[in-house]
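Backbone shape codes:
===
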Amino acid sequence: MAAHRRRCSVVLLSIFSLSLINVAHSQETTAPAGQYVSASVDPQTETAEKKAEQPAAKGRWEETEVGNMDLGDAATETPDSLSHENVFSPSASEPKHDFREELVIRPLHSGDIYASFQFRTLWKTNFRENKVSHYRLFPKSLGQVISKFSVRELHISFTQGYWRTMQWGQPYQPAPPGTELWVWFQDSVTDVDGTWKKLTNVLSGIFCASLNFIDSTNTVQPSASFKPLGVGNATDHRFLRYATLPREIVCTENLTPWKKLLPCGSTAGLAVLLKSEKLFHSSFHSQAVHIRPVCHDWECKATSWELRQTLNVVFDRHISAQGKREWSLFKMFSRTLTEACPLASSSKIYVDITDSPQGEQLELSPPTSLLSQAVALGDRRTFSVYDLTQQSTFGMTHSLNLLIRWKSNEGDMLRPLLHAERYVAGYGLHMGEIHTLMYNNHPYRSFPVLLLESVPWYLRLYIHTLTVTSKGKDNKPSYIHYQPSKDRVRPHLLEMLIQLPPISVTEVTVQFERALLKWTEYTPDPNHGFYVGSSVISSLVPSIVAMDTNMTQERPLFSSFFPNKEESTYFTRVYTEPLLVNLPTPDFSMPYNVICLTCTVVAVGYGSLYNLLTRSFQVEEPSPGLAKRIANVIRKMRGVPPL
């Protein structure tokens, strides 16, 4: 028995030693002698190097943070014996990671405040060729989803509220109300519809959402919209699926799993500010997850997986600021910042001061001397930068509570060049008409837009009534793709490429007929109405300034999500309001009334008949009076027979 225990102890000790060796090998950051290390930064490695500060061995090249330098500079700083190909050698023993976090604060002309969080995780690995089992910064749950379902790109958003473009301008990350999900699959997937259904069920469990209600009745396969945002030239739309749930409600149970995907969670860095009580007490709230492959080096010989988590929120000054034009981190989020995420290679706060570059209208406290310019949404913006990786940012109190105060209310907001609206017209519960309005506010340039409409099957479109007018004249689309619906199988899909004239309103109208559903297909509150997802408008809008084509220059994350191919335009996506349509609804109280009436008649009629058939009748003599009963008692006492 003792020998058996000793053998078990030896085996357990061996396993424990091997596991320690594997962990030490996975965390090892230096290469063997004579082998050069990739120039990609590793946040944990950088922290460990700062603590250890061990000198590099002879013949090695130390890792260099490329987040704050050009890749061309990294190539020039290498030794003469090291070629450019060796800088980004894909044969490194360990996949390279990088994590950056940013917060963009943009004061709005209405007095409200717009805050946009950006968290980006890069991981150089290949899920298709390698079986990945060790996860470091990249969340394992999403990595397994990519590997299991052969996902090429995944974009999902949860939005509460509607973005008011004419009051707030263009958002950095547009999203429709409710839930939106669109996925590109690898060309190796044979059953796309089956994989799509399984993927939605898995994502429903990961994000605690009702994505399991996505099926063929609300899924479409666009033919021109939603091109891939990552690297790759394959555009076979058979591997694309798009669906929306406009009625989905976003709450804390969706935010909690979203925060758990961050390397530092909500315990350090900018994620500390994500307090659900404040985020959901706002005019607009949108959180999203974007996964796509991006280039890992300048020549794009190797690719990395990019996970970008975004959260956009707009705080109303009448609700959150008691009507004052004064904001602070504590007033917005009920918390302040004390440190950056230890795993982040970059942690910054950007405050948009484009309208007040010299502090004429805005006052920042504490002030900062760091300024940055970036082209975002076709306009060159100026930002005050707070670098959280520098201890001087937090001051003597070791806490940062950024204060933004308005000095004056002067200045007008530039009207967005492109925005859209949609509404339902008509009367009664039989026929109706959908109107989509697209506004081009550019003074002299026209540009094309790609309109996508996904209409449920119970609104039967009359496609022959489709009209497109601009400035009172017919505007013939240059491209039309229409896929009719099938009852209880698939929705309508309409895509059109339309040229918008300058300073014009283009109206798209189409008539529809309301279908009568089965009584089991109605929602628990049928009189509330049925939601129709937002229209999607994609376009290359003329830019206010020329776009910078130097992709190696450091720029904020919020300005580099959508790719730009031309200097004079920038890509944008606009969503309209979701529609609320009433359908012919039966009076669901009638069954209750019929049941009550029937039960009453049956109870009265059947009860009376049953009593007549089962009750026995007997003749009962009338009871004697009181005097007679007293007399009978007396007679009985005397022994005389009663009367």
Remarks:
- The radius of gyration is 35 Å.
- DSSP finds 13 helices and 26 strands in the chain.
- Residues 418-581 form a domain with the Immunoglobulin-like fold (CATH 2.60.40.740).
- The CA atoms of residues 464 and 510 lie 8 Å apart.
